[in-house]
Amino acid sequence: MFLFNELNDCKDVEILIVDGDLGHYLTVTGLVWNDGNGDQLIQAAENASIFYIDPATGAPAFSPIGGQVNPGDPVRVSYPNFPQAELVMTVSESPIPEPMTLSLLALGALAALRKRR
Asked: Which domain holds residue 25?
């Protein structure tokens, strides 16, 4: 599953959930899911939960997810204001180190090279 793999690769993952005409983005921080039957579908009986930071409040939260019976079925997210929300889009970004982090890495590499000589 794309979402699971991107989180395992430590990528920044944003999802869009939609209920009717209303949509809301969430920043995903974790996924707990035991694919008991190995079919790679997130089903309600598998007690999956998604952890996220809600930009509306800035607070961490989690919601149960599931609802897939067949490949291509929507993933349902039980978000407080959207009880019948569907996950319609997932976007991930590779983390880009800050300039200060890159500078420290470069200095460390230079120091290691100097020590080697």
From this structure: 2-116
Per-residue confidence (pLDDT) for residue 53, from 0 to 100? 92
Distances from the Cα of 62 to the Cαs of 2, 3, 108, in angstroms?
Answer: 19, 15, 39
Residue of 32, 57, 40, 33 lying closest to 1 (CA atoms): 40
Whether the Cβ atoms of residue 42 and residue 66 lie closer than 8 Å to each other:
yes
* pTM across the whole model: 0.70
Q: How many domains does the structure of the chain reveal?
A: 1
SS (H, E, C) 49-117: EEEEEECCCCEEEEEEEECCCCCCCCEEEEECCEEEEEEEEEEEECCCCCHHHHHHHHHHHHHHHHHHC
